[in-house]
Hints:
With 156 residues, the protein is an alpha+beta fold. It has a single domain (8-152), classed as Heat Shock Protein 90 (2-Layer Sandwich). Helix content is 34%, strand content 26%. The chain is built from four helices and five strands; from the N terminus they run αβαββααββ. A five-stranded mixed sheet has the order 1-2-3-5-4. α2 (40-64) runs antiparallel to α4 (120-131). Adenosine-5'-triphosphate binds at residues 49, 53-54, 57, 91, 93, 96, 100, 104, 109-112, 116-122, 145.
Amino acid sequence: MLNKNMDIRSHLAARFLRKCGIDISIAVSQDTILLADGFQNEYKQVILNILNNSKDAITSRKETDDMMRGLIEIKIGNNAKRDKVIVSMLDNGGGIPDNVMEKIFEPYFTTKGETGTGIGLYMSKTIIETNMGGSLTIRNVNGGAEFMISMPVSKL
Ligand SMILES: Nc1ncnc2c1ncn2[C@@H]1O[C@H](COP(=O)(O)OP(=O)(O)OP(=O)(O)O)[C@@H](O)[C@H]1O
Ligand SMILES: [Mg+2]
C-alpha cells in the first residue's frame, strides 16, 4: 500500500509546502515492512488532511514570527513486533491546546472560523479506524503536533 518511491502527487505536495516556506523530510527505517491492506486513495486523503492541518498551523505561527522555519517530519517504520506499519507526522506549528485536543476528531469542530469545515480529522479517523482497521492518534511533542497512523501489516 505504501510506496517507497514518492509518487508524483507527493512530489507536488512537497513542492507546495516548500512554497509556503515549510521544509518536509521523510525517513523510512531500514527493512521496514510497508505492506498493509486498505484503500490507497482514502489513505492518501488522510495524509493530505494531516499535511494541510500542519501547513495551516505553521502558516498561522509564521504570521506572528516570520523568521520561524516551518518543518514537517515524516517517519515510517514498524513497531517492535513488526506487525504494524506506523507513519508518524510531526510538525512545529505550536501543537494543540488541551481544550481543543479533546474535540479535534468531532465532526464540524474547527478553530478556523469560516475557512475550516472541521471535517478533515473526523473523516481521517473514520477512514483509518472504521474502514481500514488501523488507528489514528495524536499527541503534542515539543512545539508541535504529532499524528500517528498505525495499520496492521498485511498477512499475505
Ligand atoms: N497540526 C495541527 N496543529 C495544531 N492544531 C491542529 C492541527 N491539526 C488539527 N488541528 C486543530 O484541529 C481542528 C480540527 O481539524 P480538522 O482537520 O478536522 O478541521 P479543520 O482543519 O479546521 O477544517 P478542514 O480540515 O475541514 O479544512 C483544527 O481546526 C485545529 O484547531
Ligand atoms: Mg483540516
